[in-house]
Structures are given as structure tokens and as C-alpha cells.
Amino acid sequence: MSEVSLVVNGRKVSGAVEDRTLLVHFLRENLGLTGTHVGCDTSQCGACVVHVDGKAMKSCTMLAVQASGSTITTIEGLANGADLHPVQAAFKEHHGLQCGFCTPGMIMTATDMIRRHPEGLDEIAVRAELEGNICRCTGYHNIVKAILAASKTMSKASKSKAKKAA
Amino acid sequence: MYSVNYHRATSVADAAKKIKAGDAKFLSGGMTLIPAMKTRLAAPSDLVDLSHIADLKGIKVSGKNVTIGAATTHFDVANDEKLKKVCPALSHLAGHIGDPAVRHRGTIGGSVANNDPAADYPSALLALGATIVTNKRQIAADKFFKGLFETTLKDDEIVTAVTFTAPAKSGYAKFPNPASRYAMTGVFVTKGKDGVRAAVTGAGDDGVFRSKEIEAALTKKFEPAALDGVSVPSKNLMGDIHATPEYRANLVVVMAKRAVAAANA
Ligand SMILES: Cc1cc2nc3c(=O)[nH]c(=O)nc-3n(C[C@H](O)[C@H](O)[C@H](O)COP(=O)(O)OP(=O)(O)OC[C@H]3O[C@@H](n4cnc5c(N)ncnc54)[C@H](O)[C@@H]3O)c2cc1C
Ligand code: FES
Ligand code: FES
């Protein structure tokens, strides 16, 4: 057993876990944050993607003890109260989900990719960036549309913020 | 996953001490070891985490000499501006390993220590004539990689860095397995002061190897056209549900052409 302490969605949390506990299980079972999903055993589907110290990572391929000391954002931490995050809003607007199982991972991957591409994204880049996220329902088309739309709104928002600041 | 004891190493010396416990294994990015433990293909009693050792991280470029710390992630190799200038092929390779989440955690040290016959880095290190630095010695890539998942590393030996002199030209092309994205065949070519080297991953039935046929043709002329009509024997190549040895033999030539085109671009 080891003591794990993390900051999850802005809240300090800690707990004693078996060393073999995966981060995803700690999030779901100890913290009750069931938005992060498990879709495979092979680290390939991306349903479990969360941000660890600001970077997209597969929480099914990391022990909770490995993550101890880090800051984590899960799907539950994206919205600002009742206001959806722009990526969440775009998935809703563009019908980027059907059953919704892959969606938390898709959205966490999408926010990470938009952050890394402030210059903007095109369809080829979005599809390449989605390499590690599998969706059994949508055929990806509307997911790609939603990410492109969110990337536009977010770069506009950051430009107008920069203008105001200047 | 079977029960395991986790230890976080604070330095290379600390890791060397901690690895003595039971049937312990080093843990770096965990992108190979954790999936293997989840499916119980690996069951170490203890894990010694190297990923918090600051000395093992980072890329140094001085002139043409490159040193990459073992715990440097694929993401950092893909995005390092200095490395991109002296050896863009290696950054390109790192940027095409797996997916973004895998690249954020997986490390070069873990990849070379694991020596998966379909991994990308072994071909680069062999073609670059790189040196693998451990806490005990320096090993030339030519001697380091031994067959499938085998290297000359001892169980308690830690890869600390990889070093090489960037050649004038280098290029990498892989034909990714459509499901796993590992290389079904990948070829890394270099042209430096010691001549041409071409290393092949994903195709050999005994792991990464240098192709004599490709090197001979490219030594005459370092152009894709020099490979027209060149054939690579399929005798020691892998055959599986994805591709026959003959198909892979053809892929070696096709990927080598693309790698040379990239190197000359
Ligand atoms: C979905 C997915 C897709 C992938 N696609 C690709 C791909 O396209 N191409 C590719 O090349 N790889 C691919 N990989 C593998 C990935 O690159 C791994 O990151 C890499 O093979 C292992 O590095 P790691 O840091 O994760 O090592 P770990 O998993 O932590 O360790 C791997 C092995 O190396 C040993 N080890 C680790 N570090 C050291 C060290 N410093 N000294 C001595 N021994 C050490 C460990 O004990 C273990 O046996 C993929 C992985 C996943 C999950
Ligand atoms: S559950 Fe993590 S990649 Fe599938
Ligand atoms: S919406 Fe069902 S798996 Fe993607």
C-alpha cells in the first residue's frame, strides 16, 4: 500500500491504495469520478484520457502511485459551473457523439491538441492527433468537425483576450 | 495485474540500489511495461520508477553532438528545436510513435531497453551509429541490439542516455501497422562521414538489422532511383497475419526510397 496525494480538478485529494491500482481506478472508485472510462485492456482506445500536469495521458496505463504529486484534470473539471467548455459545447452543437462512451477521452484529447496547436488545426492534423482514440459509433466525422469548430472559437477567444489586454 | 511494490528512485545511484529487491524491474514511461503487467505477461515483484530522476531527462545538442537522456519522452524528442535542426529525421520518427498520449509518457530509454522488433527507435540508433550509455559502460548500437526483445543490458543495468553525432543527411519512413501503429517495416537511412547506413525495423525475424543491399545501392548514389530494381532477400524476414516475408522484403525497398527522399528534402 502507498499513500497517494493529487490535485484533481482543483481539489486536493489523498488516499491509501495498493501499488498496483491504476490511476483510472483511483479516479473512478476512490474519487467517484466516473466520467473517465475504460474501453480496452491494451492502451489503445483513449476512453481513459485525462490531463496529468497539463498533458493528455492514458490513465489506464499509469499507476496511481506513479501520478502521486501531480495535478490532474478529468472531464468533470472542464466546465465552468453550468457553462460547458468550448470543446464540450462544440461536441453538442456538431453532434460529435452517439453512445458517448468514447466522448470524455475524445474531449480531453481534443483540448490537449488545441492547446498544442494555437496556430490552428486542419482536418488532416485532427485525424492524425486522434490516432489514440477509438470511437465505435460516429465514424469520427462529426468529432473532427466539432474539434475544428472548437479550435476556431478558442483561438478567437484568446485573440480577443489578448487585444483587451494590449 | 498481480500485486507489486512501487519505489520511486531519486537518482541513478538510488535506482541501482532499489533494483536489487526481489524480481524488480525498472519503470520509465510505462507504455510497454504497464500494458504487459495488466495482461499478466509481466509480473515483476517490484517496480523502480526512473521517471522522476531529473538527470535522466533532456536533450543536449552541441554542434553535431547529440545526447538524449533516457527518460526523455517521445514528445520532447519530437519537439526539440535544436534537435530538429541537426537531425530532423529523429524528431520526425519520435512524432510518429503511437499517439499523442503515448508520446507524452513513453521514453527513448524504455524503447531501446525493450527492443521490440517493431519499435521505431532501434532502427534510428543503429543507422546513426549511436552509443547507448548506461550506469556501467558505453555500448555501440551495433553491439547493443540482440534479437527479439533482447539487448546486451544486464538486469540491473540502467540506460542513462543515448549519444550520436548527427550525420549530414538522415531520413526515416515507416509503414505503420494499421491497428497498432508500430512499424510493419521502417527504414532509417543516414549519410555521414563514415558512409551510408540503412537500418530496418519491423521486418527482420531476429529484430532490427542493417540491409547490405540497400547500403550498397545508396553508396553508389544517395537517391531513391538508386534503389530501382534492388531486391532484398526475404529469407530472414518476418511473416505474420499482416504481411508475408516477401511483402516485407518489398516494403524495405519502398520505405528505403521514401527515407532517402526525406533525407534529401
Ligand atoms: C498504444 C501504443 C502504441 C505504441 N506505438 C508504438 C510505435 O508506433 N512505435 C514504437 O516504437 N513504440 C510504440 N509504443 C511503445 C512505446 O514507444 C513505449 O513508450 C516504449 O516502447 C517503452 O518506453 P517506456 O518509457 O514506456 O518504457 P517502460 O514501459 O517503462 O519500460 C519498458 C521496458 O524497458 C525497461 N526500461 C525502461 N527504462 C529503462 C532504462 N532507463 N534502463 C534499463 N531498462 C529500462 C523496463 O524495465 C521495461 O522492461 C506504443 C505503445 C502503446 C501503448
Ligand atoms: S482504457 Fe485506456 S486506452 Fe483504452
Ligand atoms: S460515441 Fe459511441 S464510442 Fe464514440
From TrEMBL, chain A:
<dbReference type="InterPro" id="IPR036884">
    <property type="entry name" value="2Fe-2S-bd_dom_sf"/>
</dbReference>
<dbReference type="InterPro" id="IPR051452">
    <property type="entry name" value="Diverse_Oxidoreductases"/>
</dbReference>
<dbReference type="InterPro" id="IPR036010">
    <property type="entry name" value="2Fe-2S_ferredoxin-like_sf"/>
</dbReference>
<protein>
    <submittedName>
        <fullName>(2Fe-2S)-binding protein</fullName>
    </submittedName>
</protein>
<dbReference type="GO" id="GO:0051537">
    <property type="term" value="F:2 iron, 2 sulfur cluster binding"/>
</dbReference>
<keyword id="KW-0408">Iron</keyword>
<feature type="domain" description="2Fe-2S ferredoxin-type">
    <location>
        <begin position="2"/>
        <end position="78"/>
    </location>
</feature>
<dbReference type="InterPro" id="IPR012675">
    <property type="entry name" value="Beta-grasp_dom_sf"/>
</dbReference>
<keyword id="KW-0001">2Fe-2S</keyword>
<keyword id="KW-0560">Oxidoreductase</keyword>
<dbReference type="Pfam" id="PF01799">
    <property type="entry name" value="Fer2_2"/>
</dbReference>
<keyword id="KW-0411">Iron-sulfur</keyword>
<keyword id="KW-0479">Metal-binding</keyword>
<dbReference type="Pfam" id="PF00111">
    <property type="entry name" value="Fer2"/>
</dbReference>
<dbReference type="InterPro" id="IPR002888">
    <property type="entry name" value="2Fe-2S-bd"/>
</dbReference>
<dbReference type="GO" id="GO:0046872">
    <property type="term" value="F:metal ion binding"/>
</dbReference>
<dbReference type="GO" id="GO:0016491">
    <property type="term" value="F:oxidoreductase activity"/>
</dbReference>
<dbReference type="InterPro" id="IPR001041">
    <property type="entry name" value="2Fe-2S_ferredoxin-type"/>
</dbReference>
UniProtKB/TrEMBL annotation, chain B:
<dbReference type="InterPro" id="IPR002346">
    <property type="entry name" value="Mopterin_DH_FAD-bd"/>
</dbReference>
<dbReference type="GO" id="GO:0071949">
    <property type="term" value="F:FAD binding"/>
</dbReference>
<dbReference type="GO" id="GO:0016491">
    <property type="term" value="F:oxidoreductase activity"/>
</dbReference>
<feature type="domain" description="FAD-binding PCMH-type">
    <location>
        <begin position="1"/>
        <end position="169"/>
    </location>
</feature>
<dbReference type="InterPro" id="IPR016169">
    <property type="entry name" value="FAD-bd_PCMH_sub2"/>
</dbReference>
<dbReference type="Pfam" id="PF00941">
    <property type="entry name" value="FAD_binding_5"/>
</dbReference>
<keyword id="KW-0274">FAD</keyword>
<keyword id="KW-0560">Oxidoreductase</keyword>
<protein>
    <submittedName>
        <fullName>Xanthine dehydrogenase family protein subunit M</fullName>
    </submittedName>
</protein>
<dbReference type="InterPro" id="IPR016167">
    <property type="entry name" value="FAD-bd_PCMH_sub1"/>
</dbReference>
<dbReference type="InterPro" id="IPR016166">
    <property type="entry name" value="FAD-bd_PCMH"/>
</dbReference>
<dbReference type="InterPro" id="IPR036683">
    <property type="entry name" value="CO_DH_flav_C_dom_sf"/>
</dbReference>
<dbReference type="InterPro" id="IPR036318">
    <property type="entry name" value="FAD-bd_PCMH-like_sf"/>
</dbReference>
<keyword id="KW-0285">Flavoprotein</keyword>
<dbReference type="InterPro" id="IPR051312">
    <property type="entry name" value="Diverse_Substr_Oxidored"/>
</dbReference>
<dbReference type="InterPro" id="IPR005107">
    <property type="entry name" value="CO_DH_flav_C"/>
</dbReference>
